[in-house]
Amino acid sequence: MTETTHVTSCPLNCWDVCGLKVTVNEGKVVRVDGDEHHPITKGNICGRGRMLKERVNAKERLLYPLKKVSGQFVRISWEEALDDIAGKMRKLKEQFGPTAVLHSHDYANNGLLKNLDRRFFNCYGGATELIGSLCWGAGIEAQTWDFGNAYSHAPEDIDNSRHIVIWGRNVARTNMHLFERLLAAKKRGATIVVIDPLFGPTARIADQYVCIKPGMDAFLAMGIMKELLRLGLEDRAFIKQHTIGFDDVKQLLQTISLAEIERHTGVSRDQMTELARLYGDRPTATYLGLGMQRYANGGNTIRWIDALVAASGNVGIPGGGANFGNLQVGECFDKAALTLPERKTASRTWTMMKQGEEILRANDPPIGMVIVTCGNPLAQVPNTNLMKKAFASVETVVVFEQFMTDTAAMADYVLPVAASFEEEDVYCSSMYHAYLNYGPKLVDPPGEAKPDLWIWTELAKRLGFGDDFAYTREQFLAMALRPLEHHGITLKRLKTEHRVLLPVEPVPWRDRRFQTPSGKYEFTSTIAKKKGMDGRLQIMYPAESEESNPALAAKYPYRLLTIHPLRSNHSQHYPLIPALQTVRIEVAADVAAAKGLADGDRARVYNDRGSLVGTVKVLDGAYPGTINIDEGQWGVFGGPVNVLTSDLESDNGCGSALYDCLVNIEKVTSEAK
């Protein structure tokens, strides 16, 4: 037997986008290791990446097109499936226009050619499209208001930081190569602070752990800034020369006391004073996580932390930054050449969070078909029960999938698609490093599974715009990479070198020229004002909180978090790991004491939207009144947690409020089981 090993990339939607070495034997992936030559990931990969071998080889893979007949799936040919779907799309467009079709998608895998779904729908004439993001949308919009864009410092710039604040980012679980850099930074003497409601591995290595009440991070930023100003540690020159709106901030800070902030956050004034000194002793780098912007006040939260970073002079300097997303990576490509936006003739947009509600009330036109790609919305989109009702109301649901997920199980047509290593693409991180990674096709898909691009091409032929898809994958990739040619970056070079550093700024805003309308950092946002919003920073609470809704908080006194699972990329790996196939309810010690719960007990978490039963684990160091249930669990294994979560949008309309969720909990007796 001849084994061959290939350099490729992890395709998962993750901060790190690791370099991989994949060993193939007789057409089958037999091993997945890290590529030790990758300049960022250096051979270290997580369990989610290693699980790609099990995923690609899984006996549960979908192998043939399926059609639901009398409530049961039957195998059909690709010809029948494509003819049926194209015929229905043609009739819907003739009767109602193209927006009668909803394209429901997420970001299950990266891959530049995943953008070709937009080419298909634009050439179809448009569709009802989803905007915003369950994951990071509120924070991206917030930083766009403040800086004009959402850029992060290069990973190696952390070597210039005197202090490092990890604010709500679960680094050990979601950004392991930053965790490695934190260990090195600590060894050289940098101060590490972790601010988080949950005490985890990153907090264990920190010099200071700040346990904060969930959803109240903006108030902590206010408190630190009040102390920064009292101590005279603000960067007055930066504020005067390169910002607008700081007087609005100072005026608002005068309306809230440190005592109030202590009460809201659970953080002492002494800690706020210490953090103010730390921010004033620049360069201080801040790494923001995704969870704290998943509230109804989420955009405002990120803006307050941005404001603290700016006021303390930590913007545009080596070792500083408000590091959230890194959109400059994606701006390197000619995505318009891939997507053909000029071909769209009609458009309707809904936020990703509200798609269930919008499907149910749409009548101009009604939704006659939903096409789901790169996602599992019946597990991942909040308010699962409403989503189920919405999908059940649509005449035709088409799902591109590899496994029989919760969403696929509700479909009328399930189309089996290729997995990682079964198609050629290029991959990059939109959140951390700026390396573009080549991913060759290594093995054939099993059964009759096909790449997404093949399916779009075949549907395009049937709908009359096949010429727009008459290109090879290499030709499509060359289109997208064309702007990089004058930097010497070509597909040929990428294939040879396996990864290439994109031409992005390692220290964003170093020239103090921001992409806002004013060209300055905006404490009061002009972009927000143009969108009909106030633009000033606010004092704002989570929608489901004691401050905003005391009656609800009395009924449901505990705050539910739904963090990323350690071993699965969202819902993808749950059917492959038996240890994940039970719901684990992690509770703070005070919740356990109040409800008489101990490790291993069965409990029910509930609110007005739904309930979930699982096994209790008592957490050390969690903020009082906090419960966590990892997101992504499948219905067949007792999930998903989104039966409990709300489909509220963030304050700026671009993000979810998944963490803005109050619940109660009760022990389940053996009789009730």
From TrEMBL:
<dbReference type="GO" id="GO:0016491">
    <property type="term" value="F:oxidoreductase activity"/>
</dbReference>
<keyword id="KW-0408">Iron</keyword>
<dbReference type="InterPro" id="IPR006655">
    <property type="entry name" value="Mopterin_OxRdtase_prok_CS"/>
</dbReference>
<dbReference type="GO" id="GO:0043546">
    <property type="term" value="F:molybdopterin cofactor binding"/>
</dbReference>
<dbReference type="InterPro" id="IPR006657">
    <property type="entry name" value="MoPterin_dinucl-bd_dom"/>
</dbReference>
<dbReference type="Pfam" id="PF04879">
    <property type="entry name" value="Molybdop_Fe4S4"/>
</dbReference>
<dbReference type="GO" id="GO:0051536">
    <property type="term" value="F:iron-sulfur cluster binding"/>
</dbReference>
<keyword id="KW-0560">Oxidoreductase</keyword>
<keyword id="KW-0479">Metal-binding</keyword>
<keyword id="KW-0411">Iron-sulfur</keyword>
<dbReference type="InterPro" id="IPR006656">
    <property type="entry name" value="Mopterin_OxRdtase"/>
</dbReference>
<keyword id="KW-0500">Molybdenum</keyword>
<protein>
    <submittedName>
        <fullName>Oxidoreductase</fullName>
    </submittedName>
</protein>
<dbReference type="InterPro" id="IPR006963">
    <property type="entry name" value="Mopterin_OxRdtase_4Fe-4S_dom"/>
</dbReference>
<feature type="domain" description="4Fe-4S Mo/W bis-MGD-type">
    <location>
        <begin position="3"/>
        <end position="60"/>
    </location>
</feature>
<dbReference type="Pfam" id="PF01568">
    <property type="entry name" value="Molydop_binding"/>
</dbReference>
<dbReference type="Pfam" id="PF00384">
    <property type="entry name" value="Molybdopterin"/>
</dbReference>
<comment type="similarity">
    <text>Belongs to the prokaryotic molybdopterin-containing oxidoreductase family.</text>
</comment>
<dbReference type="GO" id="GO:0046872">
    <property type="term" value="F:metal ion binding"/>
</dbReference>
<dbReference type="InterPro" id="IPR009010">
    <property type="entry name" value="Asp_de-COase-like_dom_sf"/>
</dbReference>
<dbReference type="InterPro" id="IPR050612">
    <property type="entry name" value="Prok_Mopterin_Oxidored"/>
</dbReference>
